[in-house]
From TrEMBL:
InterPro entries: Cytidylate_kin, Cytidylate_kinase_dom, P-loop_NTPase. This is Cytidylate kinase. Its EC number is 2.7.4.25. The gene is cmk. It is found in: Cytoplasm.
Length: 220
């Protein structure tokens, strides 16, 4: 299990990062939040008024590399020396990330970085195209889904804890819209890999979802 590569894909707020973090800890493997990388690229684009200029965005990403750290409250995300952990979860980034993540050059750049990180051993990666594009030969692929209502409620509670103000109905619309954009884009759309296991987490506790995935991993 030390060298297993687990790909967890699925729509927004389906619980991917929550379960991935627990599995990484239980198995002693790396956790990589690929969504945070697209969010960081989006943050750079917005903050520097770069629009969808991929060359400029990538140049700034090279100057200020994405890095991950740890704190008692959880994983930290850096751009160069700057802690952007909270900034990349704000509404402006969330509502613009699908536009930036649809750009082929940005995806190429980030996918290469993701594969490099995965080349060092056991890893659980969550995102949209991990099982289909980033790690097509991952030992275990999970496609995590949940109803829009439940996902909006989860995000609502998460946001409350982070002090981000949102309205539940607005969240439902935004989540559905982000899924639509992520699933219909030309490059690497959100799609279940043929050999991925579909897990619907609606009404299922986090610990039950984790237990299921860990059992699949042990069977491999
Ligand atoms: O996982 P999270 O919701 O933080 O991802 C934010 C956005 O990043 C997604 O809505 C999607 O547009 C993009 N993304 C992607 N491919 C990935 C991970 C995230 O396109 N592997």
């Amino acid at each position: 299990l030390k060298n297993i590569r687990i790909a967890i894909d699925g729509p927004a707020s389906s619980g991917k990062s929550t379960v991935a973090k627990i599995i990484a800890k239980d198995f002693g493997i790396i956790y990589l939040d690929t969504g945070a990388m697209y969010r960081a690229a989006t943050y750079i684009a917005l903050n520097n008024d770069l629009g969808e200029d991929a060359t400029a965005i990538i140049a700034l990403l090279k100057e200020n590399p994405i890095a991950f750290g740890n704190s008692l409250e959880g994983q930290l995300v850096y751009l160069g020396e700057v802690d952007v952990t909270d900034a990349i979860r704000q509404n402006d980034v969330t509502n613009n990330v699908s536009k930036i993540s649809a750009i082929a050059e940005i995806r190429e750049y980030l996918v290469e970085a993701q594969r490099e990180i995965a080349s060092h051993g056991g890893i659980v990666m969550d995102g949209r195209d991990i099982g289909t594009v980033v790690l097509p030969d991952a030992e275990l692929k999970i496609f995590l889904v949940a109803s829009v209502d439940e996902r909006a409620e989860r995000r609502f509670k998460e946001n409350l804890q982070k002090g981000i103000e949102t309205d539940l109905d607005t969240l439902k619309v935004e989540i559905a819209e982000r899924d639509r954009k992520d699933s219909t884009r030309k490059v690497s759309p959100l799609k279940q890999a043929e050999d991925a296991i579909l897990l619907d987490t609606t009404g299922i506790s986090i610990s039950d979802v984790v237990a299921k995935i860990e059992n699949y991993a042990k069977e491999r």
